[in-house]
Specification:
Layout: E1 4-7, H1 13-24, H2 39-47, E2 49-54, E3 60-68, E4 77-85, H3 94-108, E5 115-121, H4 125-133, E6 137-147, E7 153-162
Parallel strand pairs: 4-5
Antiparallel strand pairs: 1-2, 2-3, 3-4, 5-7, 6-7
Helix pairs in contact: 1-2
Length: about 160
């Protein structure tokens, strides 16, 4: 099934809220819970760098966003990265293509972006494998970083990609 990748815009806000809520509702979908996906959150997402995967009918199947660090010392870094693919569309390479678009865009930015960083839940090996395939390296582990509503704790795996 074909889809296109394009920059996200304000016209996508309603669809992106629905996408992120759907992704957040499944285990290991997103760090945020569905009730934490708000219009203000999505507006902040697309204020940085954001790309969407759009199906032939105009439905948004996935989204990725990141932001340049604002402290001068770290301004060569993209962080606050999140990728969301609708649960019904996972396993079709959408996440990979969204990352490829983000990485290509980062390489063209001025002043240059030299590093992209992210954190992945240790209990999400599929996401970690995807990031490794894209060239991200393991850089550390934050022990008990995430706490689920049932009280379980999960480590975050810190990963980085040098461009």
């Amino acid at each position: 099934m074909s889809y296109t990748i394009r920059p996200a815009g304000p016209e996508d806000i309603t669809a992106l809220i629905a996408l992120h809520k759907a992704a957040a509702a499944v285990p290991d979908g997103l760090a945020r819970r569905p009730d934490e996906i708000t219009q203000a959150y999505v507006e902040r997402c697309i204020a940085g760098i954001s790309f969407v995967a759009v199906g032939p009918d105009g439905t948004i199947w996935g989204e990725i966003h990141a932001a340049r660090e604002t402290v001068a010392l770290f301004s060569h870094v993209l962080s606050s990265l999140t990728v969301a693919v609708h649960p019904d569309r996972q396993g079709r390479g959408i996440g990979s293509r969204l990352f490829e678009a983000l990485i290509a865009h980062a390489r063209s930015m001025q002043p240059p972006i030299l590093r992209i960083e992210l954190a992945a839940g240790a209990g999400n090996p599929g996401a970690i494998r995807l990031y490794e395939r894209l060239g991200f390296q393991h850089e550390g582990r934050q022990v008990a970083r995430g706490r689920y509503p049932d009280g379980r704790l999960e480590d975050d795996i810190l990963m980085g990609l040098l461009l």
